[in-house]
Amino acid sequence: MKTTKIWANFGVEDLARTTQFYSELGFKPNGNNETLTSFTFGKDNFIIHFFIKKQFKWAVNGEMSDLNLGNEIIFSLSAESIDEVHQWLLAVKNAGGKIFAEPQSFEKGYFFGFSDPDGHKFNVLYWPE
Question: Which residue intervals define the domain VOC in the entry (predicted)?
């Protein structure tokens, strides 16, 4: 078997808040309706659908992660410099994201971690070639 595409699906409390957050960070909208808002990420246009939680529960058989206790996944967003990591930090703070890891060095790279208003976790990483 061979898959042709992969995307992510998350549950959120408030579609308007989620749409505003990811729009303020500059991600490209990929459509929305009364049950979801969707964005593309990166040069490859990786898609993340954000479903309203009550609609999303069918896909996970009613079970959803408690993001206050842990996380389901952390997506990494690439940055082209340390300065760009700091630009992302300011943008995330201004958009209402929560910083869970302050900017710091990691091996030969540099990153910080944030969560969106629903607790979905991301990091922004500069990794020199």
Answer: 4-127
Contact 46, 9 (CB under 8 A): no
Residue 100 to residues 52, 109, 128: CA-CA distances in angstroms?
Answer: 24, 18, 23
Q: Which CATH superfamily, name and number, covers 73-129?
A: 2,3-Dihydroxybiphenyl 1,2-Dioxygenase, domain 1 (3.10.180.10)
pLDDT digits (tens, 9 = 90+) for 48-105: 999 998 776 555 555 666 666 667 788 999 999 999 999 999 999 999 999 999 999 9
Question: Helices (H) and strands (E) in the chain — how many of each?
Answer: 3, 8
Distance CA 47, CA 101 (A): 25
pTM, rounded to two decimals? 0.87
Rounded CA-CA distance 95/114 in Å is 11
- CB proximity list for 113: less than 8 A, separation 6 or greater: 74, 99, 100, 101, 121, 122, 123
CATH code at 6-60: 3.30.720.120
Q: What is the DSSP letter of 57?
A: G
Output the DSSP codes for 76-89.
Answer: EEEESSHHHHHHHH
